[in-house]
Design brief:
317 residues; 10 helices; 40% helix; 17% strand; globular; binds uridine-5'-diphosphate
């Protein structure tokens, strides 16, 4: 248990990563406020935490676009935003608003209380990357008017706002760029590749492979991501990031399908579907900065992270 205990706001705390982070912070003995509007967050992610840590967990159903939360806090983690393409594309205008207005409101709140504020940014700021692996110095290759732009550009403008608040107003900011987190508590309906493939394999349905499956991703187990976020928050004020948090183990989507078929013992065939517009072809984090500044490195490779994730989906079914 770390001491002294802090008052911490987690926006998006009912979501997949938000609820893992909330659990971690409660376990460390802190008082946690969760703000979530249940756009993609889920009650069932928080219920067990209420049972275990009820007195130190406060939930407020609020939208960060119109955030009225104003209690004193020491730290803010801004995770509120749908993160899977089908979700953030369902209402792209709301997605951009959530990124921008959410960032604005948490920055103002942090300023009011002198709190540290961490932005959960994304590898999507690199877009269809022309540099590989991607390091933080790379400015990215993002289509500003495609179907992914609401998220990619939303996250980019949020970073921009964070750095302007830091330069102009001395905000105590931290920016993490997360690469494809996965693990238990993923929303079964979020349409991401890990959840889709596992559910399809368990149901003996065809695995929907978009494109030829040669595009790559680097999947980071949720506990590793959370450790990285907390390590970043704990850095001195002169370290702002942005810092990549991801697992450098890179796999083609076809390899992922094969791994999931092997681990589930499923006989599902592959069903080819068109590659979505602007789907990045490669993605792998350069994590030299996280290693050096946070002494962080992911501990759980894909082969170890998939079995508990499969177990979680099995239990859901
Ligand atoms: N993908 C796929 N089948 C699916 C869902 C996704 O082949 O059922 C592909 C998708 O086109 C992308 C990769 O898997 O190339 C990762 O997709 P996801 O939505 O999980 O994450 P993101 O594209 O945001 O990295």
């Amino acid at each position: 248990m770390s001491s002294p205990s802090k008052r911490i706001l987690v926006t998006g705390g009912a979501g997949f990563l938000g609820s893992h982070l909330t659990e971690h912070l409660l376990r460390e003995g802190h008082k946690v406020y969760v703000v979530d509007n249940f756009w993609t967050g889920r009650r069932e992610n928080l219920l067990p935490l209420f049972l275990r840590y009820g007195d130190r967990l406060t939930f407020l159903r609020e939208d960060v676009r119109t955030l009225s939360f104003s209690r004193p806090v020491d730290e803010i983690y801004n995770l509120a935003c749908p993160a899977s393409p089908p979700h953030y594309q369902r209402d792209p205008i709301a997605t951009t608003q959530t990124c921008f207005l959410g960032a604005m409101h948490v920055l103002e709140l942090a300023e009011k209380w002198g709190a540290k504020v961490l932005q959960a940014s994304t590898s999507e700021v690199y877009g269809d990357a022309l540099q590989h692996p991607q390091s933080e110095g790379y400015w990215g290759n993002v289509n500003p008017r495609g179907p992914r732009s609401c998220y990619d550009e939303g996250k980019r403008v949020a970073e921009s706002l964070f750095f302007d608040f830091h330069r102009r107003r001395g905000a105590r900011i931290k920016v993490a760029r997360l690469f494809n987190a996965y693990g238990p508590q993923m929303d079964p309906l979020d349409g991401r590749v890990v959840s889709n493939f596992i559910l399809q394999a368990l149901r003996q349905e065809p695995l929907t492979l978009y494109g030829d499956g040669t595009q790559t991703r680097s999947f980071c187990y949720c506990q590793d991501t959370i450790r990285g976020l907390v390590a970043l928050m704990d850095t001195p004020d002169d370290f702002t990031g942005p810092v990549n948090l991801g697992n450098p183990g890179e796999f083609t989507i076809r390899e992922l399908a094969e791994k999931i078929l092997a681990l589930t013992g499923s006989r599902s065939p592959l069903a080819h579907r068109p590659l979505p517009t602007d789907d990045p072809r490669v993605r792998r984090p350069d994590i030299s900065l996280a290693r050096m500044a946070l002494h962080w490195t992911p501990a759980i490779p894909l082969d170890q992270g998939l079995p508990p994730t499969i177990q979680y989906f099995k239990a859901l079914l």
